[in-house]
Amino acid sequence: MKPAPLKSTALQRLRDALHRRNQTAFVFSGGGNLGAVQIGMLRALVERGIEPDVIVGCSVGAINGAAFAADPSFRGLIHLDGIWGRLADGRPDLMPDSRLPIAVQMALRKRSLHDPRVLEAFLESELPVDSFEALKVPFACVATKLSTADEHWFDSGPLVPALMASAALPAVYPPVEIDGELYMDGGVVREAPVDQAAEMGAKRIYLLHVGYLNEVRRFRADRPFDGALHAYWVARLRRFEDDCDDLTRRCELIRLPSGPLPNIRFDDFSQGRRLAAQAHLASSAHLADLELRSRA
Fold first, then answer.
1. Angle at 286 between CA 280 and CA 289, to 5 degrees
2. What angle do CA 131, 92, 128 make, to 5 degrees?
3. 215 pLDDT exceeds 70?
4. 153: phi then psi, degrees, rounded to nearest 5
5. pTM as predicted
6. Residues 6+ apart with CB under 8 A from 140
């Protein structure tokens, strides 16, 4: 499948940055509470002095990508690690437990399972900048525009509203309104925007993907909502594989491994430190192996 053509000049600044420099992109996929694995992957990259010319993100990957774009250094990595550590400790509890079963909550007349204001306030307090223009590395994130059922890219203006739009997981958080338009999670149409990074001119893409890439994910439906989330994951993965069909003919794609992933609830952030540590080990070994092969 060919990448969707850009419909505006919204990403021109990122494309120009790639053409001026070494044409390296970091692409952060979506993945909800498993986004902690991207911290371990980032650590492996930073330890080897690998730097991005641009950063592209979706959903939780948009949040991680924006935070790193604000301070693309070891100091920025430590700050990101601290963010996920606080989430693991429930400070704040982004998705608090309810006395009602998920199926009952889904049937109630309300916009979403959880209040987005908790996440919004957390981002406003943790991100060191409030606009795309203040980021140190050019960055863009994708959301799904409901009026057109198509992807929409943000790369300028206020940062937090765009991140909230990109991470508005259906049913979990409500759609986000920006300038009269409603947006939801970018993963609905663009799980891991590697093709967009290639279209912008990237010659080397490091993919920080949350989830399984080469195997069928183990499925256990303890509740009706688990089945819905699994179906959503399958659709996102299928789109990702389609996007990668001809990518290797245009650029080098380096998929960083996450290590073993536990089967945890979508609202369980408690294992963030473990996820980051496992991803760091797996990604470090993978990058070391690539270095050895390049020297052979």
1. 140
2. 25
3. no
4. -105, 135
5. 0.84
6. 10, 11, 14, 54, 55, 56, 57, 132, 153, 154, 155
Nearest 5 degrees, angle CA 60-CA 66-CA 71?
Answer: 135
The DSSP secondary structure of the chain, one letter per residue, reads: -PPPPP-SSTTHHHHHHHHHS--EEEEE---GGGGGHHHHHHHHHHHTT---SEEEEETHHHHHHHHHHHS-SHHHHHHHHHHHHHHHTTSS-SS---SS-HHHHHHSSSS-SS-HHHHHHHHHHH-S-SBGGG-SS-EEEEEEETTTTEEEEE-SSBHHHHHHHHT--TTTS--EEETTEEEEEGGGT-SS-HHHHHHTT-SEEEEE--S-SSSPPP---SSHHHHHHHHHHHHHHHHHHHHTTTGGGTSEEEEPP--------TT--TTHHHHHHHHHHHHHHHHHHHHHHHH-
pLDDT the model gives residue 47: 97
Region 209-223 average pLDDT: 58
Decide: 175 and 182 in contact? Cβ < 8 Å: yes
Q: Both tokens of residue 183?
A: 């947006």
Contact 187, 34 (CB under 8 A): no
The per-residue pLDDT for 3 is 47
Least confident of 158-167, 168-177, 193-202, 277-286: 193-202
